[in-house]
Amino acid sequence: NPTLVRNLGIALGGSGANRTITVTPELNIFGTATITLMVNDGATTVEESFLLTVVDVSHPPTITPIDDITIAKNTSTNVIEFTIGDLDSPIGSLLVSAVSSNPTLVRNFGLAFGGAGANRTLVVTPVADQTGTATITIMVSDGPLTTNESFVLTVNSGVTQVGDTNGDGDVNITDLNNVRNNFGAAGGAPLGDTDVDHDVDITDLNNVRNNFGATSNGSPSISTLVGAPQSTSASQGLESHAVAASIEGTRLTLGGLPILIARRKLERNPAKESAADLLFGQLSGENVSLEAPKFRTRNPRAK
């Protein structure tokens, strides 16, 4: 059966009375073949035959790896190219499908295949106005066997907020804690490095502070409240303003005047704490109160 075993697939070895034979069938072919050994002394030939049986072993389909992908919301992925194959089955008989682990972000009908033969494509279109992550799993089946290939799709807001340390599009207490916990770290890409200068310092603190409350949907940060009048009392002639705190060296000020630090635990020594520590404590919910100076006027209309 030369379809299964060609003569050049039979290799003899050894010497003298001790001989060997190695039989190598054709790739991906199964069946039976009778292998006949012949020994000749010049006058007489003796034959010895044996039956070689090659059983069918089904190989799973193959698919090339796909890297994780990040896109902005309300957009689709670029065309994702991948290659499929199977040692045992024709390419045209392979079934390709996909599923999303997060239908809130990517529904299955948002997975569109293209291409033909071994060269296939996929375009992923998430649900409108949704952000988050979904694991997209592509499945290639030859019937008995299936091979899976997965990648993580991340859909972000597409808006980069100054002070956003974790890429979620918001500037909040998590970002403040990232700066606080890594304050002073340098080298590499420390968590809390908002300006990508490879260290976490007062600039990163100010980036978080100045944009604290900013969100991916465009909500204003607390810095927009600087100088905005909050309440006016005509009878007492008092007007209060919400103004942003600022750090001048190790001195914390509000509206250019020193801030009164109150209700700190007695075992703490505020004199030994930096202004950054005090601001960290205020925004992270520790038992710290920062009181702004009150602006008094006899005339409630006075600025």
Blueprint (SSEs and pairs):
Elements lengths: L9 E6 L2 E6 L7 E10 L4 E10 L7 E2 L5 E4 L7 E6 L9 E6 L10 E6 L2 E6 L7 E10 L4 E11 L16 H9 L20 H9 L17 E6 L4 E5 L2 E4 L2 E4 L2 E2 L1 E3 L12 H9 L5 E3 L3 E2 L7
Parallel strand pairs: 6-12
Antiparallel strand pairs: 1-2, 3-4, 5-7, 7-10, 8-11, 9-10, 11-12, 13-14, 14-20, 15-16, 16-17, 18-19
Helix pairs in contact: 1-2, 1-3
Polypeptide structure, described:
This protein has 303 residues and is mainly beta. The protein is 9% helix and 37% strand. It is built from three helices and 20 strands. The strands form seven sheets. The chain has a four-stranded antiparallel sheet, with no helix packed on it. It starts with 9 loop residues before the first strand and ends in a 7-residue tail after the last strand.
Strand order of the largest sheet: 5-7-10-9
What is Rg?
37 Å
Low-confidence stretches: 218-300
Shape: elongated
Strand-pairing-aware structural class: mainly beta
Got a strand count?
A: 20
How much of the residues is beta strand, in percent?
A: 35-45%
What labels describe this entry?
303 residues, mainly beta, 4-stranded antiparallel β-sheet, 4-stranded mixed β-sheet, 3 helices, 37% strand, elongated
Short summary of the structure?
A hairpin with a 4-residue loop joins strand 3 (31-40) and strand 4 (45-54).
